[in-house]
From TrEMBL:
<dbReference type="InterPro" id="IPR005269">
    <property type="entry name" value="LOG"/>
</dbReference>
<dbReference type="InterPro" id="IPR031100">
    <property type="entry name" value="LOG_fam"/>
</dbReference>
<protein>
    <recommendedName>
        <fullName>LOG family protein</fullName>
    </recommendedName>
</protein>
<feature type="region of interest" description="Disordered">
    <location>
        <begin position="89"/>
        <end position="108"/>
    </location>
</feature>
<dbReference type="Pfam" id="PF03641">
    <property type="entry name" value="Lysine_decarbox"/>
</dbReference>
<dbReference type="GO" id="GO:0014074">
    <property type="term" value="P:response to purine-containing compound"/>
</dbReference>
<dbReference type="GO" id="GO:0016799">
    <property type="term" value="F:hydrolase activity, hydrolyzing N-glycosyl compounds"/>
</dbReference>
<dbReference type="GO" id="GO:0009691">
    <property type="term" value="P:cytokinin biosynthetic process"/>
</dbReference>
<dbReference type="GO" id="GO:0005829">
    <property type="term" value="C:cytosol"/>
</dbReference>
Length: 179
């Protein structure tokens, strides 16, 4: 199976670890499980927090990883290598679209994009399914948008909320109130 034929799961999650160690443990295990299943990971491109944990779990176990990161988040979410950050910053100066960044053994392929809208669109195009792990407002934004796209018949891909240790309980109650 080629990279284009590989079943790819888009994971939305936090760029921080959150307040419970179990979030990072489960994010790493999820990345490992994707690699073992020979499924690819598409994610927000960060090396920090849960994003970094899921990407490392997948990439270091032989899985395909594609991170998509907007210019505005480079310095906050991609702190793995100074040389990589230097290359990214130089790339931003001449940026006119999406820019591939050299592969990393820990984080796979990374594509630099102009903004969050482009990030979400590219992540959706590259994926066959979506999974939300714990995160903040950005994760909720991504989850809400991809769910809206499903309601509007833009896609019919599965959407899963991985409710680690009840993290999404209040969110799910709120959503049920809308129905």
């Amino acid at each position: 199976m080629t990279q284009q034929e590989t079943f790819k799961v888009c994971v939305f999650c936090g760029s921080s670890f959150g307040n419970k160690a179990i979030y990072a443990e489960e994010a790493s295990k999820f990345g490992i499980a994707l690699a073992e299943k020979k499924w690819g990971l598409v994610y927000g491109g960060g090396s920090t927090g849960l994003m970094g944990a899921v990407a490392r779990g997948c990439a270091t176990n032989g899985g395909y990883v594609h991170g998509v990161i907007p210019e505005a988040l480079i310095s906050r979410e991609r702190t793995d290598e100074e040389t990589l950050n230097d290359k990214l910053k130089k790339s931003i100066d001449n940026h006119d679209g999406s820019t591939p960044i050299p592969d990393s053994s820990q984080y796979g392929k990374t594509t630099l994009v102009k903004d969050m809208h482009t990030r979400k669109r590219l992540m959706a195009q590259e994926s066959n399914a979506f999974v939300a792990l714990p995160g903040g407002i950005g994760t909720i934004d991504e989850l809400a948008e991809i769910t809206t796209w499903c309601q509007l018949n833009v896609h019919a891909k599965p959407i899963v909320i991985y409710n680690i240790d009840g993290y999404f309980d209040n969110f799910l109650k709120t959503i049920q109130g809308f129905c």
